[in-house]
Amino acid sequence: xxxxxxxxxxxxxxxxxxxxxxxxxxxxxxxxxxxxxxxxxxxxxxxxxxxxxxxxxxxxxxxxxxxxxxxxxxxxxxxxxxxxxxxxxxxxxxxxxxxxxxxxxx
Length: 106
What we know:
Blueprint: H1 25-46, H2 50-63, H3 67-80, H4 93-96, H5 99-105
Helix pairs in contact: 1-2, 1-3, 2-3
């Protein structure tokens, strides 16, 4: 996290914003977890475990929808032929606005 999500001040590797004094430790931890999940998803995708990669990417996107995670999810959807088979859950549902509907199905 480079900037405070509240006031947009630069953070300089701290957990408290110097301008608005917001405590950002939890948000930074969530972002770090999302990056780890994204890395695990990339590994699963590389070894051909598309279902596990999709599950990990959904978790990552819920925590922090980084551009890299979105790109990886798009690549996975193309690889899986999303929409053509009717099976599976759309990895990008949270990004495209269908996240509420998807979460209700769970």
